[in-house]
Write a structure and sequence with these properties.
Layout: H1 3-12, H2 18-32, E1 38-45, E2 50-58, E3 68-70, H3 75-83, E4 87-89, H4 101-108, E5 113-121, E6 124-133, H5 143-146, H6 148-179, H7 187-203, H8 205-208, H9 212-221, H10 234-237, H11 245-252, H12 254-269, H13 277-286, H14 307-322, H15 333-345, H16 351-358, H17 361-370
Antiparallel strand pairs: 1-2, 1-6, 2-3, 4-5, 5-6
């Protein structure tokens, strides 16, 4: 396919997951470069200096998953990011020892050569794209140049996800400024809550079959759970005392308002049919649903509540309990986890998600220390 046709074809694949798009692209790469046995994208999180496995396609059935490392601990990739340069390794087996853990993984699967490209949006590092082959010297000559069209397609796919998140956030910032709303959640709360969400998603990945793509989308979209609050009047949103029944019903409308806002942004951005958008929609629509059917707005129960909704609910409750509010002192982590366990025992929230958070208390303390709560 010619480059314009490839971009059009990728656009027709927009309703699939990014993993599906990656498989589709890999097929086309291998048509012209059959020695390319694997393509993978790792995302970079500048908030936590983490490089994280994201999506991949290979002719093997065991992708590198749930892998994360601080970029500062991988000097070779850090240099590529600083120089905004790509790298070809003609024979991984000839690299000086000790190698990075990722290199050992490649060698253990028989990969021998690689081509690595950092992905940027302007000067902002998005992550890295890896082409790997089980043949030495697979990326000599003009091969890297011929792969550039696929580099841009992968970059475009990543940007679609990130820009969707930024588009919604941007609309919230504008609306908040116009309405002078002061109670939309603070940045530090959102950083903690999204980090807890990712921690829980990683902890239940094996039980629920969560992919790296799903985990990262929960992380990216969880801060947008309460975007509908921009449509709630200040008289209710900022009321210091207890809400009346009428006011409580009005407050609960923030969920449906948020869903309408998301739908509008997706429609304007031409992303309404994308597969990953369902995670964003479910985060906004289901973060107040409980497994026993007592939540709102739809009173979902059991498996009707999507996993991303269960995860974000628990992360949000945990941060609310452990944070100081004008009307309460912060709970200890132990007391907050005990309350979550009580809710799980009562059938309200997912016990596996609560267990995942409880198993990760050291990581919880690190998140709190990094984003503004005492450990």
């Amino acid at each position: 396919m010619t480059p314009p046709v490839l971009f059009e074809a990728l656009d027709t694949e927009i309703g699939t997951s990014l993993t599906d798009q990656m498989h589709w692209l890999h097929e086309h790469v291998r048509h012209h470069h059959p020695k390319v046995n694997r393509i993978a994208i790792a995302l970079y999180d500048s908030n936590q200096d983490l490089l994280k496995s994201y999506v991949s396609s290979s002719d093997l059935g065991d992708p590198l998953s749930l892998y994360e490392r601080p970029l500062t601990t991988v000097p070779s990739l850090l240099e590529l990011a600083r120089d905004q340069s790509s790298r070809v390794i003609n024979d991984l087996a000839q690299l000086p020892q000790p190698c990075a853990e990722h290199t050992y993984w490649l060698l253990s699967r028989g990969y021998r050569s690689s081509y690595t490209v950092p992905l940027f949006q302007s000067s902002r590092l998005l992550g890295f794209l890896f082409f790997d082959s089980r043949t030495p010297d697979a990326f000599v000559g003009r091969v890297p140049e011929e792969l550039q069209i696929y580099v841009q397609l992968c970059r475009m796919s990543v940007l679609n996800v990130i820009n969707l998140s930024h588009a919604v956030e941007g609309m919230v910032r504008v609306a908040r400024g116009l309405a002078h709303l002061r109670d939309i959640e603070t940045g530090r709360h959102l950083d903690r809550m999204s980090s807890y969400s990712r921690l829980i998603a990683r902890g239940v990945a094996s039980r629920f079959g969560c992919t790296d793509e799903f985990i990262e989308h929960v992380y990216l979209f969880s801060p947008l759970h309460d975007i509908g609050k921009i449509g709630i009047p200040d008289s209710i949103l900022l009321k210091p005392g207890k809400l009346s029944d009428e006011e409580r019903l009005a407050m609960q409308c923030h969920v449906e308002l948020g869903v309408r806002l998301v739908e509008e942004v997706m429609r304007d951005a031409g992303l309404a049919g994308t597969g990953y958008v369902s995670v964003l929609r479910n985060v906004v629509h289901c973060h107040h649903e409980f497994l026993d059917g007592s939540g709102y707005p739809r009173g979902l129960s059991g498996d009707e509540v999507p996993l991303e909704g269960r995860i974000v609910t628990i992360a949000d409750i945990f941060d609310a309990l452990t944070s100081e509010r004008p009307y309460k002192r912060p709970w200890s982590n132990e007391d907050a986890l005990a309350e979550l366990q009580r809710m799980a025992d009562a059938g309200k929230i997912d016990p596996h998600c609560v267990e995942a958070l409880t198993r990760s208390v050291a990581d919880v303390r690190n998140i709190q220390k990094k984003f503004g709560l005492a450990a």
